[in-house]
Each structure stands twice: as structure tokens, then as C-alpha cells.
Amino acid sequence: MKRILASVVIAADMASPAVAEGLENWYVGAGTLESEVEAPIVTLEDSGFALTLGYSFEVIEGLDTAAEYTYTRVMKFDAKDNTVNKSADINTMDLSLVVGKELQFVAPFVRLGFSRIDADVFLTGNGASLRSDGDSNALIWGVGLDVPFQKSASVRFEYTAAEYDKTDLSSLRLGLITHF
């Protein structure tokens, strides 16, 4: 994850002014997250990462508006918990509208969009096994805070949540956003 964040920062700083002019409304982000998936028979928690591509535009004067596409590796693990073996590979792809307001030192925002989850979960133990493998769509919402530390970069703190066919997903994310 540190390599991804460093690569984003270096690439943004090395972009020539001519290239940056054509990309002035675009931004990229990378972050780490802690997620919880609550399903009717199991709750899973793990760390993951998110990669974001965004485009800023003005809809209402005084409000920062952006469209974002985010790929998230929610969790991937194999673990044994007492007598139960757990395996999970869960990813999401989100398309969201993000609306915020830049204040003196921070920029709070809200997120609303569509999310698609791809989940493969396998549980075994006590002579029984359960496998869930599939895709589902949901409405995603979130709240967050961007804290600028340079003219074109900020640290992002965010909480997001979505409900996919009786399964709830919530995530806390810490990341870096770099504007071109």
C-alpha cells in the first residue's frame, strides 16, 4: 500500500505543466481501509485497499462536486478460528457523486452512488460447509473529510456503507488524494 501511495504522489509531482493543464479537473487516490461484512450467518472483518479516479466539476456555486470511480479490495484472507475455517475474497466497484464544501482547513463531503460487489466466501467447520459466490448491486453512501496539506494533495478520512442482498458492508478509509 505504501508503494501505491508513493507512486501516486511521485507521478503527480512529475507530470509536466502541459499535461497537468489538460487534467486540471482530474484526481487520483489510494487508501487503506478496515471493513466489516455482516451477513445473516457470519460477520467478517479485515483490511483492504481502495483506488480512486475522480473528476471535479461545478454544479452549484460554492459546493465542490465530483464523480468518482473506486475499486476496493475489501478483504482477502484464509483463516482458522477455533474449529471454523474462513476464506473470503471480496471486491467492490463504485460509481459515486461526491459533494463537499471547502472550509478554512478541511473539506467535509457526502457520497451517494451505486456499488457492485463480487464476493466469494467459504466457511467450513463441525462437519458442515457453506459457500457463497456471487455479485450484487447496492446503493452506497458515505461521509468524509479531506484535509489538504499541499495545493494539490489532501489526506482523506471516510466512512462508507452499503447493503447488498441482506449483507451489510461498512468501511473506514484513510487515503491520499492528488489533483492534477
Write up this protein.
This protein has helices at 2-14, 17-22; strands at residues 26-38, 43-57, 64-81, 84-100, 107-125, 128-150, 153-164, 167-179. It has 180 residues and is mainly beta. The protein has an eight-stranded antiparallel β-barrel with strand order 1-2-3-4-5-6-7-8. The longest helix is centred in the first third of the chain and has 13 residues, at 2-14. The two termini are 21 Å apart. The relative contact order is 0.21. The model has no long low-confidence stretch (mean pLDDT 85).
Side-by-side strand order of the widest sheet: 1-2-3-4-5-6-7-8
Instruction: Indicate the mean pLDDT.
Output: 85
The string of secondary-structure elements, in order, is HHEEEEEEEE
Query: So what's the overall shape?
Result: elongated
Poorly predicted residue ranges: none
**Number of strand segments:** 8
What structural class do the secondary elements suggest? mainly beta
Estimate percent helicity.
10-25%
Brief sketch in words of this structure:
With 180 residues, the chain is mainly beta.
Notable traits:
180 residues, mainly beta, 2 helices, 8 strands
Topology:
Layout: H1 2-14, H2 17-22, E1 26-38, E2 43-57, E3 64-81, E4 84-100, E5 107-125, E6 128-150, E7 153-164, E8 167-179
Antiparallel strand pairs: 1-2, 1-8, 2-3, 3-4, 4-5, 5-6, 6-7, 7-8
